[in-house]
Amino acid sequence: MKGRSKDRRYGTMKIVIIGSSGRLGAALMREYRDRYDVAGFNRAQLDLSNLNDVRERLRVTNLDVLINAAAFTNVDLCETERDRAFLINAEVPGILARICREKRAKLIHFSTDYVFEGEKRAPYIEEDKAKPISVYGESKLAGEKNVLAVENRHLVVRVSWVFGPDRPSFIDGIIKGAQENREVDAIADKFSTPTYTLDIAAALPRFFAPAGDYGGIVHFANAGECSWREYGQWALDCCHEAGLPLKATTVGARKLKDMANWVAQRPVYSVLSTAKYTKLTGMPPGTWRDAVADYITRFYSKK
Ligand SMILES: NC(=O)c1ccc[n+]([C@@H]2O[C@H](COP(=O)([O-])OP(=O)(O)OC[C@H]3O[C@@H](n4cnc5c(N)ncnc54)[C@H](OP(=O)(O)O)[C@@H]3O)[C@@H](O)[C@H]2O)c1
Predict the structure, then answer these.
(1) Domains in the chain: how many in total?
(2) Is residue 140 part of a domain?
(3) Rounded CA gap, 68 and 206, in Å?
(4) Which residue of 9, 55, 108, 191 is most buried, as measured by CB atoms within 10 A?
(5) pLDDT at residue 88, rounded to an integer
(6) Is the residue at 220 inside a domain?
(7) pTM of the complete model
(8) Pocket (CB within 6 angstroms of ligand 1)
(9) Range with the lowest mean pLDDT among 1-10, 154-163, 168-177, 187-196?
(10) Which domain holds residue 85?
């Protein structure tokens, strides 16, 4: 563990991040290391499929807030590895919730827009009925329930289309594709909202402080909504603006039904309403277009 917290508002708050090498976990590690007393576990340090190890290692770890950014996130593989999906995405979060309750610590657990079936055409609110259409979504929903059944003071944060500098995602794939090929395309009939890991990192501390001691489910995503094609197009526009050489400058449209290699079903529309988050914190999330522009400026234009 590092030294004492450097953020006086939060005293000597000890934060432990599980999944510290993942796209989100690594961003949280980096963003918090100068402000809090932070420790992390990646898979090599703690394999979540070894439940005894999880219990033993965490019971002897001092913490005020435990952030679970680990998950079995391969949506297609979850279909064929159902037991593993439920172990990592549902059973482990319940165990983490119990360990936190014993320690009088808070668990912040991440979930997904894929808990929804995608039939709505307006942003999903926290009270909407979750009805997953994939094993990944089912297992994540079970994880939410397991966490909140233990302690309603714990927090479940549902996010969508996570992107950031620590592990490539859709946006990096489309940029690489446009750098190497004259044509790129993306699905134009599936809608949600990109969520920038640096914005998630900035949002979470509002729930660490006693004043923000909210428990339950909260949705967090950047503001607005788009298709994957629009998301990709904006990324290329930002790259163009930043002077990044591209072979393709427009993103062609593909249809969801043409994704023959996908095993799992995905929701067509899974935009998360952030009205509750905004009401709780008084801080509306920034738009997805600004988040993407910031990402390109910071992590691509200086390459
Ligand atoms: N990515 C998205 O678009 C998206 C959308 C909605 C919700 N979410 C949720 O957001 C959270 C963070 O996702 P992410 O994008 O950061 O995913 P990610 O990059 O796949 O990170 C997940 C992490 O969990 C770790 N992990 C998986 N199985 C493990 C095990 N048995 N033991 C220990 N660690 C294990 C992985 O380790 P390895 O690095 O060794 O594989 C990885 O570091 C997850 O709860 C996810 O469900 C993500």
Answers:
(1) 1
(2) yes
(3) 17
(4) 108
(5) 98
(6) yes
(7) 0.95
(8) 19, 21-25, 43, 47-49, 69-73, 88, 110, 112-113, 140, 159-162, 167
(9) 1-10
(10) 8-168+193-224+266-286
